[in-house]
Amino acid sequence: MSGAGEAAFIAAVKPLVDAVGGELIPPDEAGPDDVVLPWEGAAAVAVRLPRLADSLDHILAAPERREGMPPAEPDRKAKQEIVRGLEARGAFVVRHGVETVASAPGVSRFTV
């Protein structure tokens, strides 16, 4: 990785990679499941996407990163909004997703 333009490109994609729970790695360390991002005709950086199991943990941590508080602290209405957002992001399609989501804000799976 070199050049000011390339560094700006990498800085620009970093928030997106962080939001999906990925990791930026040098392109020469990319594996077959990594996504290599080109810039001006050359590989600038590679993105290692999270494993599905890690994705749910990352989704659960998103409200805390965004709101600045753990999921157990918000009031009932805020917890409902958090659960709706998690549902919209697909948190319940993974095995035991409901139970995992319920444990984060400290509610029962039936409440979720």
Protein model, in words:
- This protein is an alpha+beta fold.
- It folds into 2 domains: 4-48, no CATH class; 52-103.
- The chain has 4 helices and 3 strands, in the order αβββααα.
- Strands 1-3-2 form a 3-stranded antiparallel beta sheet, covered by helices on one side.
- It is elongated, with a radius of gyration of 17 Å.
- It starts with a helix and ends in a 9-residue tail after the last helix.
Ordered list of secondary-structure elements with their pairings:
Layout: H1 4-19, E1 23-25, E2 35-39, E3 42-48, H2 52-67, H3 76-88, H4 97-103
Antiparallel strand pairs: 1-3, 2-3
Number of helices: 4
> Low-confidence spans: pLDDT under 50, at least 5 residues?
none
Briefly note the structural class of the backbone.
alpha+beta
Cα-to-Cα separation, first versus last residue:
45 Å
Strand content: 5-15%
Oligomeric status: single chain
Domain count: the total is: 2
Spell the H/E element sequence.
HEEEHHH
- Based on Cα principal axes, name the global outline: elongated
Q: Total strand count, please?
A: 3
Rg over alpha carbons: 17 Å
Major β-sheet annotation? 3 strands, antiparallel
**Percentage of residues in helical conformation:** 40-55%
Arithmetic mean of pLDDT = 78
Strands ordered across the widest β-sheet: 1-3-2
Can you give keywords for this protein?
three-stranded antiparallel beta sheet; 4 helices; 2 domains; alpha+beta; 3 strands
